[in-house]
């Protein structure tokens, strides 16, 4: 697969803040690529460096294989969509959308044709004569998107574009954006701190923490096979359960013991056992692969019930059916799906693979 955008060993410091530390990214042509990380991880800085709005201290930016590190933003031909809509208040939606084309002095027939194409794509025909003050946040975000789409750039860089929308609209716009991506076939580089957005929209995700890429892969690859303890905890809600243990022929923690399903350790290895709440069940069939504990809290959520259980001195969360009725203080056993458990080195926090 050819690469649309490559970041090669990009470092960027602001004063004594190392925002990016030798960052590596390879974004395939036509993909919906999500850069996922918590606030302060360096996501915006990455986009700004790629777009040419910020000069990296070291490293190179390649666009379709050609070194663009010294190219101006205009030469790079990348469209940015920001979290704030940045619309011109005194222009109508139509004028806002077509401003990049009018700036380039395109003939009116061409401008009108592009406006028609984009407004059909975004379903905003009825908004075109409105001013920003007459639109909702979701409508303004669509117009801002329209202004990026009208240009037909090499790729779209989007910086948390849905963050300011309410939950219902955010869910709607996720579907919209994936539909738009599919119909345009262009490269999308989408920044978010929301792992649900990453899971639902991305072809490929790069997880960013403190200016370095922790893991790159398809959303399910990362969810099912996190490279380290931090990624495991960041991807998924509720968070992956973690229990301290000693790993050898068995995994032994305080008040529990399970067979080692093949993790490659030798000697008594200090480790952290990880299991997601959906890979635990309160219906125990095999006593040999169960954890014992007492119910600490019960949280009914409608479509499922989360049961908090204390095991040894630590707590785990179990996803139970909505009909589950458990009482606080009640002793329970949780069956573990041993095919889906994880083990991390206690020291390095890296995942330990199975033999
Ligand atoms: N212009 C700037 N001046 C000083 N520090 C900055 C500047 N831009 C970003 N930073 C710092 O760099 C780090 C990464 O910021 P940013 O790229 O905005 O992260 P994110 O978008 O993931 O929240 C943060 O610690 C931030 O405070
Ligand atoms: Mg940011």
- Largest sheet data: 6 strands, mixed
Number of helices: 9
CATH fold-level topology of the largest domain: Rossmann fold
User: How many domains in all?
Assistant: 2
How would you explain this protein's 3D organization?
- By secondary structure, the chain is an alpha+beta fold.
- It folds into two domains: 3-231, P-loop containing nucleotide triphosphate hydrolases (Rossmann fold), CATH 3.40.50; 238-345, Nucleic acid-binding proteins (OB fold (Dihydrolipoamide Acetyltransferase, E2P), Beta Barrel), CATH 2.40.50.
- 25% of the residues lie in helices and 35% in strands.
- It has nine helices and 20 strands.
- A six-stranded mixed β-sheet has the order 6-7-8-3-9-10, sandwiched between helices. The protein has a five-stranded antiparallel β-sheet with strand order 13-12-11-14-20. A five-stranded antiparallel β-sheet has the order 15-19-16-17-18, with no helix packed on it.
- The protein is elongated and about 75 Å long.
- The mean pLDDT is 94.
- Bound molecules: adenosine-5'-diphosphate (ADP) and magnesium ion.
- Adenosine-5'-diphosphate binds at residues 14, 17, 19, 37, 39-45.
């Amino acid at each position: 697969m050819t690469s649309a955008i490559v970041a090669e060993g990009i470092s960027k410091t602001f004063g004594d803040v190392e925002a990016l530390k030798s960052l590596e990214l390879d974004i395939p042509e036509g993909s919906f690529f999500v850069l996922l990380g918590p606030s302060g991880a360096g996501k915006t800085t990455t986009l700004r460096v790629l777009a040419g709005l910020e000069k990296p201290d070291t490293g190179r930016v390649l666009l379709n294989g050609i070194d663009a590190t010294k190219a101006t933003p205009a030469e790079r031909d990348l469209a940015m969509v920001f979290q704030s809509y940045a619309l011109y208040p005194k222009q109508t939606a139509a004028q806002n959308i077509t401003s990049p084309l009018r700036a380039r002095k395109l003939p009116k027939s061409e401008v009108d044709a592009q406006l028609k194409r984009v407004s059909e794509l975004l379903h905003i025909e009825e908004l075109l004569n409105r001013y920003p003050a007459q639109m909702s946040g979701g409508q303004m975000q669509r117009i801002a998107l329209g202004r990026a789409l009208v240009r037909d750039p090499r790729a779209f860089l989007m910086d948390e574009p849905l963050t300011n929308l309410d939950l219902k609209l955010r869910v709607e716009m996720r579907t919209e954006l994936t539909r738009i991506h599919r119909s345009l076939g262009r490269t999308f580089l989408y920044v978010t701190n929301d792992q649900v957005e990453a899971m639902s929209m991305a072809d490929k995700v790069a997880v960013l923490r403190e200016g370095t890429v922790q893991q790159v892969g398809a959303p399910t690859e990362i969810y099912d096979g996190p490279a380290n303890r931090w990624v495991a905890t960041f991807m998924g809600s509720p968070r992956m359960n973690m229990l301290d243990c000693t790993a050898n022929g068995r995994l032994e923690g305080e008040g529990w013991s399970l067979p080692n399903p093949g993790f490659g350790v030798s000697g008594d290895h200090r480790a952290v056992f990880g299991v997601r709440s959906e890979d635990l069940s309160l219906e125990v069939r095999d006593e040999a692969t169960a954890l014992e504990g007492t119910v600490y809290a019960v949280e009914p959520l409608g479509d499922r019930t989360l049961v908090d259980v204390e095991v040894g001195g630590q707590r785990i969360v179990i996803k139970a059916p909505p009909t589950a009725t458990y009482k606080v203080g009640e002793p329970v056993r949780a069956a573990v799906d041993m095919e889906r458990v994880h083990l991390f080195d206690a020291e390095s926090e890296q995942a330990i693979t199975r033999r």
